[in-house]
């Protein structure tokens, strides 16, 4: 007989200022909940069925492969690394998302959302991807679908390449952390040359390829700069990490290793980078601005078309209502006239019959009433006649 699961083992609730971790084998493909956490660093180093992140703020959350969905709801100022079949953010603000997802990421009623490729690794993560039935090569992190787009400014954007970093969590007693199995685009210092698609193809604003937005020459420069950055990392940062003492490792914080492509790093490699490459990040900024501008114009045009369609629909319904009312009144009048005619015929027929008023009145001795054809007296006479028959 299986032992009963303890609910507390599958949730982090109401935690403040703590480092929290679930090690490999502690979830084994079950659900997990992160709720009401603040100023925490959270590691989920195992595969899960689905994960909920609710009502949390000022946290860093790193999640391993999830077979189903990861939901982020009512959160703010969160950095999250998430790998799942589906990734959804709702009613949240200022969320930095390092995402792997095999379907289009979805937003709803959220602002200030930034997307970047998945960046998390820990011992056994490659095996965990297999258990979660996720293909690391099929990542749609940038194909965002926004259910509630903003007509003035986009609710989401891509992370600037200079801010991209890798996060590796080591676990005591296990082998060294593996590399992140998800392919990282050249733009972000990786080796994947797959084109980055901005926006969901299912969105009314079609997804646009990076080549189209930046131009092929700018993309070429961006790739060249990424290659140079990678060389710099391999020749400078890694060698320093191997030779320097722990006190000198300025890229290691606790067990979390970050490779940050910051402004100072680029400045230090200035002699290795040509003028075109230096300007590439500016081109990357322009792509986001242009994309937002295109989205704004497209949304405005779509809103005008929607308003016109609604106006035409209302006008059509108004005409249909008028036609229906006219037909109803015409049919009602006709039926009323028919009923009046039928009622007159019935009255006429009844009057002509023996049980009609004519027969009743003729059978009343008007002499009993003084010979006067007074209506009230006639009515009383009829009543008296009826009472006599009932005796």
From TrEMBL:
It comes from the Eukaryota. GO terms for cellular component: cilium; periciliary membrane compartment. Keywords: Nucleotide-binding. Signal peptide: none annotated. GO terms for molecular function: GTPase activator activity; nucleotide binding. Pfam families: TBCC. InterPro entries: C-CAP_CF_C-like, CARP_motif, Tubulin-bd_cofactor_C_dom, XRP2. The keyword Lipoprotein does not apply. GO terms for biological process: post-Golgi vesicle-mediated transport. Residues 1-149 form the C-CAP/cofactor C-like domain. This is C-CAP/cofactor C-like domain-containing protein.
């Amino acid at each position: 007989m299986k032992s009963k699961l303890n609910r507390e083992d599958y949730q982090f609730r109401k935690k403040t200022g703590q480092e929290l971790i679930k090690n490999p084998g502690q979830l084994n493909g079950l659900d997990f909940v992160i709720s009401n956490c603040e100023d925490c660093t959270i590691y989920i180093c195992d595969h899960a069925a689905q994960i909920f992140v609710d009502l949390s703020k000022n946290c860093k959350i790193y999640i391993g492969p999830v077979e189903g969905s990861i939901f982020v709801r009512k959160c703010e100022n969160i950095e999250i690394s998430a790998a799942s079949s589906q990734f959804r953010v709702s009613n949240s603000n200022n969320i930095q998302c390092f995402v792997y997802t095999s379907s289009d990421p979805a937003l709803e009623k959220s602002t200030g959302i930034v997307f970047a490729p998945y960046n998390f690794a820990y011992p056994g993560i490659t095996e965990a991807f297999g258990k979660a039935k996720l293909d690391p090569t099929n990542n749609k992190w940038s194909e965002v679908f926004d259910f509630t787009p903003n007509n003035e400014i986009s609710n989401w954007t891509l992370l600037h390449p200079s801010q991209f970093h890798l996060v590796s969590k080591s676990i005591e007693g296990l082998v060294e952390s593996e590399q992140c199995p998800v392919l990282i685009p050249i733009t972000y210092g990786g080796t994947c040359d797959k084109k980055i698609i901005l926006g969901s193809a299912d969105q009314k604003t079609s997804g646009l390829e990076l080549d189209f937005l930046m131009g092929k020459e700018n993309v070429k420069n961006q790739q060249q700069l990424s290659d140079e950055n990678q060389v710099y990392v391999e020749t400078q940062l890694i060698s320093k990490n191997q030779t320097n003492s722990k006190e000198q490792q300025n890229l290691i914080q606790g067990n979390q290793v970050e490779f940050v492509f910051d402004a100072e790093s680029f400045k230090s490699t200035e002699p290795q980078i040509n003028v075109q490459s230096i300007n590439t990040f500016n081109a990357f900024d322009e792509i986001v601005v242009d994309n937002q501008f295109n989205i704004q114009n497209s949304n405005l045009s779509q809103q005008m078309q929607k308003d016109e369609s609604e106006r035409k629909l209302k006008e059509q319904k108004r005409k249909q209502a008028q036609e229906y009312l006219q037909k109803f009144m015409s049919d009602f009048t006709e039926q009323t006239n028919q009923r009046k005619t039928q009622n007159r015929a019935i009255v006429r027929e009844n009057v002509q019959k023996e049980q009609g008023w004519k027969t009743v009145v003729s059978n009343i001795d008007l002499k009993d009433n003084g010979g006067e054809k007074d209506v009230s007296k006639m009515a009383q006479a009829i009543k008296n006649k009826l009472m006599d028959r009932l005796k």
